[in-house]
Amino acid sequence: MENYIATRTYLEATNTSSSSAKQFYDIQYFDGLGRPKQVVNVKASPQGKDIVTYFEYDQLGRQTKNYLPVPQAGSENGAIYASPLGNASSIYGGEKIFSESILEKSPLERIEQQVQVGNDWAGKPVQFNYNTNVSGEVKKYVTSTTWADEATLSSVSLSGSYGAAQLYKNTVTDEDGNKVIEFKNGRGQLVLQRRMANTSENSDLYYVYNEYDQLAFVISPLASVAPSLDQSVLDNLCYQYRYDKKNRLVEKKIPGKGWEYMVYDKADRLILTQDTNLKLKNQWIVTKYDQYGRSVYKGIVTGGTRNSRQNEIKDSVITESRNTTGFTRSGMAVYYTENYFAGATPTILSVHYYDTYPQGAPVVPGQILGQDILPQAGPGTSLSTKGVTLASYIKNIEDDHWTKSYNYYDKKGRVIGTYSINHLGGYTRIESQLDFAGALQMSVTKHKRTDSDTEKIIKETFDYDHQNRLLAHKHQVDNNPVEILVQNTYNELSQLTNKKVGNNIQSINYAYNIRGWMTKINDPVNLNGKLFGFALKYQNPVNTSFGKYNGNIAEIDWKTSQDGVLKRYNYQYDGQNRLLKGGYSEPGATVEQNGYFNEELSYDLNGNINTLKRYTRPSIGVTAELIDNLKYNYESSHWSNRLEQVTVADGAPDNPSGYYVQGHKILYDGNGNITEMKDKGRSRIDYNFLNLPNFFDGEGYDYAKYLYTAEGAKVKKTEWVVFGNKTTETDYLDDFQYVNGSLKFVPTSEGYYDFERGIYVYHYTDHLGNIRLSYTRKPGSLTIEILGESNYYPFGLKHSGYLSKNPAYLYEYNGKEYQGLAGMYDYGARFYMADLGRWGVSDPLSELQFAYTPYSYVYGNPIRFNDPTGMIGQDPPTRGFTIENPIEIDAIVLTPKASSSSLSFMGIYNLNAYYASQDRLAAAIRSSKAALATEKFERNLSQGIITFGMGGSNLFASAGWAALETWADYQEPEEQKAIKIVQLAMIGLQVKHGNLKSFEKLTDGMYAGEQYYMYSVNSLSNSGTYTKSISTLISSDKTSSLSALLKTMNNEAKSAGAQKLVIEGTAIVNTKLFNPKLAQKLGFSYEKISESSIRLIQSVK
Fold first, then answer.
1. Phi, psi of 589 (to 5 degrees)
2. Domain ranges of the chain
3. CA 943 → CA 35, 472, 718, distances in Å?
4. CB–CB of 91/492 below 8 Å?
């Protein structure tokens, strides 16, 4: 007789318990002590076989081994398996299929080593060492704090060093020997984070707290070695923070930028924000809320200092209410009151409506694709739109035209329709048909540029298997023939192994290693009729001495059918995982190591590039030609992150095919944005209040103007070239792209549809999303036409010698659009300069990566990481996350701990570091077209390129967060005055297979008394699963407890409709959380996965 819990989650409607209905059927078996011993995902594999996860415990009852799920040879209809690992060899070969934690032999049972799955990793553990500091090892910075304008005013100075054993010292050494050392004081505050750039150089990041235990300064690695910590070094290289008497961050300074200011109401909500550029204009960004704390409109307020504005509203709770009269501003009727700052808000930027549609909204349809619409909130309506976002009106920044967007829901509260009226008067209407579980069955998109244009209709259909893995995606434009964009095939681990694109115009194979990391797209050694082959090598490059075990890529091979030449890059890194060299070769050539497209770099301690060498193929002979030998000069004699000048080193040729060096000075505005860069022919660059460039002046020879919405969406670009007096206007309207009023293309999941030629164009992309080869089927034939090939230097500059047959399609590196007159790639939040390997604008999320310059591109590692939005680097989705490779909540992305990947913004040691609002980060989900904002990620997900676990159920906490983090929003906590020590825990509600399609709600803050503050991100999947990922910040050692924490989290999960709650906490300081007996008493399974990490699982009560 076995103890078990059986869970059926139906994917189609049924009135009774059914074994034949489409469903996820999971059975968890327990031993006599209540510990899990097997989880059986019944018939969950693509071939309908069981998938079993086995649990093993040592003699002390500890789970030190974590096994990969094993697909079985058949199905036992849920019965327990006597030999659950018996079929492992047929799935994994002879690979080691468990990771193992080696614990120290002490009552603390701290983890000493973490050994990953796979034979090659058996001798490459992650090592953990616990100690205390030695005398003189860590500098001691002290502060002196006074008060000015009702805010702290701290100064910092060096006061020798810490004495022996005054700090806890924890060292993590990754698989490749790279060390991260953290020193913490007795309060659990991080004092120093040390990385080893090489054997002789430390990269030290210091955190300095004032007398009130507030983070006052973050001293960057470069600043830590400056001759003195004077005000110039502080302003150029350090983070500075000031607080009011309620412990709220009110002023901050990011290195290289001016001061930023924040004003709160009585409810501690962020009402006014101002950066340096706004201060010069005497302007503030104001956010108004309704009585439920929802943002209802934003605008620009003029006048006042931070202190005067704070005193003006400090005793008020700033709320506005819906009404029928409203007021008109910026050409838009706003149906809310204007109780505060009346008349002082000359510009309204955005308006959001909840519960009921506003006056003047289009007639609400009764049905969409045969599905009933959720009725508006009103008397007698038990099921209504109460509490959801119904309409959003977003103004253009540079003019007074607006985009109006509306959401329509079905009776399960799922978005099934969006209607967006663009700033030109046209529209995009998207209608979705969802099945019982929320999987998208069909979508219909209707679009016009202007109201008088002919409507374009795009119909898409989706087919799934018995576990809702996408099998086929079909696409039709108007009444043209239906195109099968993709047909997917999966292995028994649910990994995508083959997709046939374009009615089988190409059959693309994928391969993965034991870690779930992609290793091949086709086979570059033997194309076998394919157009493109690509291989990724980690621990197994041709030159084995360069093998990488920590997730870095050691080597890539590729080949196209264009020339049939096998090409290779071999990569070398420093101790901080920064790329030092990309060495190009052509195996099989007469001279293999020709170095034709080498790129070599060096860095300072902040990750600013010091030197860059770049080569190209010679026009004559066989010796690689040096085209760039650049020296980067920074402001303040290099005690700054702001690039001041690029010069040519050692008399290298001034070759325009690389970076065209002319030696001009680079100028910046008060927000750290480049305003003049004459080397690139830009004598003037202007920015809007979102720090997005809206004007480039090419010294009178050309210019480019950009138009954005107030949430950062680019809607228009105008380019003018004096020679020939040529003007080009490009409209960006809900993915439909026009040039001079003519519709050019719309993206698809595999490329784009060319309206001018009436053809589907397909892309081969690599692991970073770089477009490598574009092709199509010639109309009326089966012949393939190659439209373009692109290859790239490591930091993104294109190799010379490749042309494109579609000059209107400029999406290339990372899939981003190249801005020709600017000479940069548009990533959304910022423009990137691939010729220099850095951004032209300071990072809006720089406080999540203190150790790196705000201008660094993906931490100096563009081979492993990409940056989907221009906000922060991350592992691309093709990394292939699995349950065995969960994402660890860590402070820094680049040097992962026991399991590798990026979860950067969860690892915050002090919440004060990022209190200011991040409007750009919210843009993707505030819009009613949130699904479009995350389209590329969703497409990869729906095709199975990512594996969120293996089998019928997936842990959202294991992988979803990293893929979605970029679209999250941050808001000010409701109350944080009691927060002293920040501790993190993460809830991942169990999510079943289904395409994450739309984000339903912004991040919200939930204050739960003096003990903790909940900070969450909510999402709605197509399967109808409401997912809530929650970080809990514990405020006080004396008031916090595991009991209070777990009860609150359980209530949150229950209210979200979840069935299972998974909590993972790392970097935990409060030892009261380490209480297995209490956790088990409260119904949780308890696992201590490291010295400072726990995992708790519970069925929601």
1. -75, 165
2. 1-97, 126-253, 522-860
3. 35, 9, 36
4. yes
CA angle 827, 829, 832 (to 5 degrees): 45
- In this structure, are residues 1026 and 948 in contact, taking their beta carbons and an 8 Å threshold? no
The C-alpha atoms of residue 596 and residue 963 are separated, in whole angstroms, by 35
Residue appearing with tokens 């705000």: 854
Closest CA to 485 of 521, 443, 434: 443
Q: Which residues have CB under 8 Å from 455's CB, separation 6+? A: 446, 447, 448
- Segment 796-806, tens digit of pLDDT: 999 988 877 88
Q: What's the farthest any 2 CA atoms get from each other in the chain?
A: 85
pTM over 0.70: yes
| Tokens at 1044, concatenated | 């209070």
Q: Is the dihedral of CA 245, 250, 254, 259 positive or negative?
A: negative
The dihedrals phi and psi of 753, each to the nearest 5 degrees, come to: -105, 125
- Sign for the pseudo-dihedral over CA of 922, 923, 925, 928: positive
**CA pair distance 458, 474, nearest whole angstrom:** 10
Say if residues 343 and 283 touch (Cβ distance below 8 Å): no
- 423 vs 932: CA distance, rounded Å: 18
DSSP letter for 293, please: S
Residue of 1008, 532, 1055 whose CA lies nearest to 764: 532
The letter for the amino acid at 631 is K
Report helix, strand or coil for 159: strand
Instruction: Give the bridge partners for 336, in sequence order.
Output: 322
* Helices and strands of the chain, counted as H and E runs: 10, 72
Residue 255 corresponds to which tokens in the numbers above? 């290195």
Residues ≥6 apart with Cβ < 8 Å to 716: 706, 707, 729, 730, 731, 732
Q: Helices 956-964 and 935-942, interaxial angle, to 10°? A: 150
Q: For residue 1042, what is the enclosing H or E element?
A: helix 1042-1055
Residues contacting residue 462 through CB under 8 Å, at least 6 positions apart: 439, 440, 441, 442, 470, 472, 473, 474, 942
What parts of the chain have a pLDDT lower than 70?
650-657, 878-1060, 1064-1074, 1077-1078, 1080-1082, 1088-1093, 1100-1101
Q: pLDDT by residue (tens digit) across 898-923?
A: 222 222 222 222 222 222 223 332 33
Alpha-carbon Rg of the chain, whole angstroms?
28
The C-alpha atoms of residue 409 and residue 385 are separated, in whole angstroms, by: 8
Residues ≥6 apart with Cβ < 8 Å to 995: 439, 440, 470, 938, 941, 942, 1021, 1022, 1023
Specify the pLDDT at position 1023: 40
- Three-class secondary structure of residue 203 per DSSP: strand
